[in-house]
Amino acid sequence: MPLLPILRFPDPRLKKKAAPVRRIDESIIRLARDMAETMYEAPGVGLAATQVDVHKRVIVIDVSETRDRLFTLINPEIIESAGQQVCEEGCLSVPGIYDKVERAESVVARYLDLAGQEQTVEANGLLAVCLQHEIEHLDGKVFVEHLSQLKQTRIKARLAKQAKISA
Ligand code: K1U
Ligand code: ZN
Predict the structure, then answer these.
(1) Which of 20, 109, 112, 166 is most deeply buried (CB count within 10 A of its CB)?
(2) Residue 126 Cα to ligand 1 middle (Å)
(3) In a domain, 60, yes or no
(4) Within a domain: residue 5?
(5) Is residue 3 part of a domain?
(6) By residue range, what is the domain housing residue 56?
(7) Sign of dihedral through CA atoms 164, 159, 48, 142?
(8) Taking 90 as the threshold, does the pLDDT of residue 107 lie above it?
(9) How far away, in angstroms, is 64 Cα from ligand 1 center?
(10) What is the enclosing helix (H) or strand (E) of 117?
């Protein structure tokens, strides 16, 4: 199964808003499978289709230590949120950069599973953070946009330097 190339911040394609999935066909099932494999290999705890340049509302998440609790969420939406938490976040599209972001402490998300059944998940802690982070990717937002302009400028400079070294 192919590993998918992950777009790097500040690639403008990360700003595109993903479209809802109308029909869960073989192409969506294959995309979700390839995304899960790419996330596990990276390694990461989540991945949004936007990050692999597919602008459809599909995310995969596995925050388990055993790496065997995969969630595939089609058209995910946060329908309830409560509280606040500040958590250190990373992003596979912003390699090597970690910083604190304030998010809701707990969320309820509604989504379709791969069989097209509507599901809800109640989440707190890292799963809640990850759901918020991945759904923001589908809306064209990267976590560093929660940081100050100064930090964003420094991050862009650091990533540009890294890209030059590895070219
Ligand atoms: O969206 C992404 O780029 C994935 C990202 C998700 C995320 C991490 C932390 C907080 C919020 C959202 C990552 O997975 S970054 C890598 C990472 O955090 C990690 C990797 C291996 C094991 C545990 C964590
Ligand atoms: Zn990310």
Answers:
(1) 109
(2) 9
(3) yes
(4) no
(5) no
(6) 12-77+87-98+131-166
(7) negative
(8) yes
(9) 12
(10) none
Amino acid at 73: L
22 to 12, 14, 60, 74, 82: CA distances (angstroms) = 25, 22, 18, 10, 30
Q: What is the pLDDT of residues 42-83, one digit of tens each?
A: 999 999 999 999 999 999 999 999 999 999 999 999 999 999
What the block records as the tokens of 151 is 């930090």
Work out the burial of residue 144: count CB atoms within 10 Å of its CB; fewer than 13 is exposed, 13-18 middle, 19 or more buried: buried
Q: Which numbered ligand comes closest to the C-alpha of 65?
A: 1
* Domain assignment of residue 115, yes or no: no
pLDDT of residue 154 exceeding 80, the answer is yes
d(CA 33, CA 76): 17
Q: Read off the CATH number of the domain in which 58 is found.
A: 3.90.45.10
Which of 121, 136, 2 minimizes the C-alpha distance to 72?
A: 121
Active site residues: 134
